[in-house]
Amino acid sequence: MFLLLFYDYVKEKQEERKKRSKEEKEKEKEEKAEIKEKYGYAIIDGHREAVGNFTVEPPGLFLGRGDHPKAGMVKARIYPEQVTLNLGEKATVPPCPVEGHNWGEIVHNHEVTWVASWRENINNQNKYVLFSAQSSVRGKSDRSKFETARRLKKFVKKIRKDYESSLKEKDDFLCQRATAMWVIDHLALRVGNDKGKDQADTVGCCSLRKEHVKLHKPRSIEFDFLGKDSMRYHNTVEVPEVIFKNFQRFHKGKKKGEQLFDKLNPAQLNAHLQTLMKGLTAKVFRTYNASQTMQQELLKLSVEESKKMSVEERILFFNRSSVQVAVLCNHQRSVSKTHSVQMEKLDKQIEDTKTLIKEMKDHLARLKAGKTPKERGKDENGEDLKAFSTNPDTVQKRIDALEDKIRKILIKKEEKDNLKEVSTSTSKVNYIDPRVSLAWCIKHDVPIQKIFSKTMRTKFAWAIHDVQANNNYEF
DNA sequence: ACCCTGACTTAGCATCGACCAG
DNA sequence: CTGGTCGATGCTAAGTCAGGGT
Q1: What is the pLDDT, as a whole number, of residue A383?
Q2: Which residues 241 to 300 of A reach strand C, CB within 7 A?
Q3: Using alpha carbons only, how large is chain A's radius of gyration in Å?
Q4: Among all residues of A, which ones are annotated catalytic?
Q5: Distance (Å, rounded) from C-alpha A431 to C-alpha A423?
């Protein structure tokens, strides 16, 4: 009863919002901008920088992703007394905007980047007001992330040698560690920390369980599990014999529910990675792998070839390259509600074009036979359709062009359908070194706004600067 | 060694809004 | 001008990983 009422209430509110007039929307937008101007910035080291989330999260029903044990719990309202502010010693404390209330603690912590924090009641975790992705603080750490991944490129030979030499270890821990490194290096899986019973059951490399892999002789492994955000990772990979044997070994004698890498945990794996390269952790492999893949894909287009292509065709090539990365990282999206409608529209375009071709072929046959052309009839609006040319060559050319059009629509349709579940934005924002993309734009004469939106260009200001200094940038 | 927690990065979905065809 | 489409942006959940405590 309560749920139904709540659902109706929310739906009603949504409908109300949709119905707002232009003026109301305009006014709301202005008010929002005013609030952002007032609360959306903080001064750090003398620079005024935007903070990403300057409001606390409103109360509501927690949903979570996938099969979450806490779905439906009430997320409580946050009051100013629960909010800690992290300010400079000399900074004036901003007045509390909620009448009759006051801030909780005021701290002066120089070791962290958050300006405010509070604790949330669902998972009892801290939430933070952090500088936005476009701020220079975040830009600096973004850059250093990619620099670490670039260092991995130099160390990767040595690291592969290290784990390859341990793949046949008798010691379970060493063998599991080496095998996990192989998996993280080759399949770009997340490390997979242990999770509590009060969270959705999702896994990464170290937390893979017996039921998540199927072994197909002679040496294929079928991975099928729910990863971060309960996204399904389903991939059958042909692996080297030693890897296959190791998986057989970790599989053997275990029951459903038992971890394959039962002697290994992420902390141990990361500790070992640190000994091979300072600053190396499991997640660096994803960044490295993504950036490296993008660079390799982009290199497949030579300047000579791209000179013959239109800018649109070059962008298409770029987008197809980023799809490779998204597939590698298993970045997915749910199929759009209008996907099937879009598909049908393309089908109709094809059908209409086919009908037209047929009509033109008849017309051409009549021309060649010396018969008088048929009347073409009327379109759906009752207008007379334009008569076909009486020149057979012109008609034939038109038919050829239409057949080409069909081929293009078919390709477009297939591409659209293939990519309906692939999301390229996540890898673009988090994994691909933006300097790789920017250097490619310069090399192939593609305006950068074609590949990076305004916010992305601000976020990657550091990268634009880097590439201006070195437009032959190599990851 | 292991567990817990704080801080930060990574993630997909909902909504917004710019642009385009009709 | 309008309604539909799709990329951009907002939101916050869900990961990673280090450091401290036991």
Answers
A1: 59
A2: 266-267, 270, 274, 281-284
A3: 29
A4: 431
A5: 13
